[in-house]
Design a protein that fits this description.
Elements: E1 3-10, E2 20-25, E3 30-36, H1 43-60, H2 62-70, H3 77-100, E4 110-118, E5 121-127, E6 131-136, E7 139-142, H4 149-155, H5 167-171, E8 186-191, E9 197-201, H6 203-217, H7 223-236, E10 243-250, H8 257-270, H9 280-289, E11 291-295, E12 300-302, E13 307-308, E14 310-316, E15 319-323, E16 327-332, E17 337-338, E18 347-348, E19 352-355, E20 359-365, H10 366-373, H11 376-410
Antiparallel strand pairs: 1-10, 2-3, 3-4, 4-5, 5-8, 6-7, 6-9, 9-10, 11-20, 12-19, 13-18, 14-17, 14-20, 15-16, 15-19
Length: 411
């Protein structure tokens, strides 16, 4: 997919030096924003080094990116995601090496957000509190979570109010490039829909405007106009920090099929109680481990008594649920699913499910699901969704038992 883009940066109204850096490679469709850590020597140097290092490392994988985009080789989404994570993580060592040879730069560090477009997908990696937003159908969704002390505490349910702690502690980062020789990178990849808009920005934008004001600004206008408007809005609010924004649009190729397929998968996932309350970014992560399969009539999706490790969500067609000697107990239709608990434990299937017609199903494997649980920020939300699901089932079972008890007492 082709994209239009625009990038803007401004020193702001308080800082003497712009410690933000940004980079755009139209050919690679690579976009980077780095924000040198305020108050530390060499912030501008750290952000410049990180930008240049990540760009150079991604450029080394040009053939891998080209093969993935053309579906001409064996390159996978995981390959590109790992490549991007490595490029960002090793930038931390590059910043540290520069600091080691210049005492003036001792302790310098930087945040980073990077977005790579390839093969109808966007690959995103980030460290620190710069952000990436997705604007889809006019609604803005944050795709990254700040790596800050305050945000980490809030995520663990221990976040104090801003007024109770010092400003320096409030703004402290829990992750940055340049602190260690490598950095833990959060990443996400998603299928693109024509008309998608992405915003990459430093906290001089989102920290000043807030999500509510950004939601007003970012859906309207060209990429150049939105980039200008974000900078101007920050300046109008005093611009206490450097402000940088990259805006990119996925060009509308008039194809509705891709958009329909992506939306259908996300809507199907939201129909599963475990995923129903996930934020959009985490729902996208779940979609990333799901595969769509076409099933012929008469195919058994699962067999009673056999161990299962897959969740099946019906997108098209219908299936029959059978017990014992082939007794039909239910029919399943689009939007319904089978095997939710198989993602949690490996247990025998309680019934056989056989396709009645040709079907399209979304499949999530247990191993892939547990891989998601290794990502802390997503795991907490998934486990909370699991608690909600189990609570609903327990309440339903309790109501059924109460009904049976009341009926027996009546007899």
């Amino acid at each position: 997919m082709q994209v239009k883009h625009a990038g803007r940066t401004d020193v702001g109204l308080v800082r003497r030096q712009n410690e933000d850096s940004h980079f755009i490679d139209p050919q690679l469709q690579l976009f980077i924003v780095c924000d040198g850590v305020g108050g530390r020597a060499g912030g501008s140097e750290a952000s410049r080094i990180a930008c240049e290092h990540i760009a150079a490392e991604v450029a080394k994988s040009r053939n891998l990116i080209r093969d993935f985009a053309a579906n001409a080789g064996t390159a996978t989404r995981r390959d590109l995601g790992t490549m991007l994570e490595t490029a960002i993580s090793t930038a931390s060592a590059a910043v540290r090496r520069a600091a080691a040879v210049n005492p003036d730069f001792n302790g310098m560090a930087t945040t980073n957000v990077t977005l790579l477009v390839a093969g109808g997908h966007a690959f995103i990696g980030h460290v620190g509190d710069s952000r990436v937003y997705l604007v889809r159908q006019g609604v803005m969704h944050p795709l990254t979570e700040d790596h800050s002390v305050m945000n980490d505490m809030k995520r663990r349910g221990r976040g104090p109010e801003r007024g109770q702690i010092g400003q320096a502690f409030t703004e402290a980062l829990s992750r940055a490039l340049g602190v260690l020789d490598s950095a833990r990178v959060d990443s996400i990849d998603l299928e693109l829909i024509p008309g998608d808009r992405f915003i990459l920005c430093s906290d001089g934008i989102h920290g000043v405007l807030g999500d509510d004001q950004m939601q007003v600004v970012v859906p309207r206008g060209t990429v150049e106009e939105v980039a200008d408007d974000l900078i101007e809005a920050a300046l109008q609010r005093g611009a206490p920090d450097n402000a940088t924004a990259i805006v990119l649009d996925v060009l509308d190729d008039q194809s509705t099929d891709r958009a329909m397929l992506v939306r259908r998968r996300l809507e199907a996932l939201q129909g599963v109680s475990m995923f129903r309350y996930l934020p959009y970014a985490d729902l996208i992560r779940v979609a990333g481990i799901a595969t769509e399969r076409v099933v012929k009539p008469g195919t058994e999706l699962c067999t009673e008594g056999e161990f299962g490790e897959s969740l099946f969500i019906i997108l098209e067609g219908s299936a029959t649920v059978l017990k014992g000697d082939g007794v039909t107990i239910a029919e399943l239709h689009p939007g319904q699913h089978i095997g939710e608990m198989s993602l949690i434990e490996r247990a025998p299937r309680s019934a056989t499910v056989r396709s009645k017609t040709a079907m399209s199903v979304l499949v999530i494997e247990r191993d892939a699901f547990f891989g998601l649980l290794s990502e802390e920020q997503t795991a907490v939300k998934l486990l909370w969704g699991l608690v909600r699901m189990l609570n609903a089932r327990l309440r339903s079972t309790s109501d059924e038992l109460s009904h049976i008890k009341a009926r027996n007492q009546g007899n």
